[in-house]
Amino acid sequence: MARTPDWQIPTDHRDKLGESPQWNSTTGELFWIDFYGPTIHRLGPDGERTDWTLSQFSSIGSVVPCADGRLIIGMDNGLYFFDPRNGAIAPFADPNQGRPDLPYNDAKVDRYGNYWIGNFDATESAPRGLLYVLNRRGEWRIGDSGFVVCNGPTFSPKGDVLYFSDSLGRQSLAYDLDPESGKLTRRRIFQKYSETDGLPDGCCVDREGCIWIALYDGGKVIRLSPKGERLDTLVLPARNITSCCLGGPDLRTLFVTSGRAADDSEPKGGALFATDVDVPGLPEPLFRP
Prior knowledge:
Strand content: over 45%
Number of strands: 24
CATH architecture: 6 Propeller
């Protein structure tokens, strides 16, 4: 049954398209982005927000913390390291190999330290999107292909299952992930979505192995069991819900990003939301370049 929890708004900033919340358990920092800023946000342990707008790029798709204090940012034309301490930017890799109209999107590090990122067709019409996996040296290969928009991914507590949002396909996929080779096998449909559900977007996994999934144009996040059973539905005061992560000191805070409505008619559209949940998350691995 759907319910509306007591949503908090930790900062008064509203993004055009907030995305990619990532909690750094080592530092107690929350990072997220505004796709169209393109801007990186940081919410520190003291509750203060810091913003970095990267006007030399057209868009930013994701941010991932690294163990050395830097961030990997997925931009429209490549993957870069960004250092919040001094604003330095350095190239990391470009699996797209310069192909146009394939901006980078959601990204996350798996339990074995590999970096996964998808892209999307800029016209949102052709299945040109690919899911890539990269090692610490920036060497890459394709995990899967044939998507219009890649979103997610997230990983089971043991790291042996990858969950992925095929957004315009209105489905979440699951794969077996081999720890030795890093290859994906046994692709299967994990969940299908109706038009009233919205489109599956960013997701995260909790300590019980259940998956929280943001539903864009659906105004909610849902919690699914590892078998795909719908266990909980949290309704938000905005329709364009983009992604989520579990953070806070005890990893029991569900942070949710959102985007503004096209006509900017929702007062809370584009806000960062937060609410407490019963089952904590897991510390997300940091990338170690």
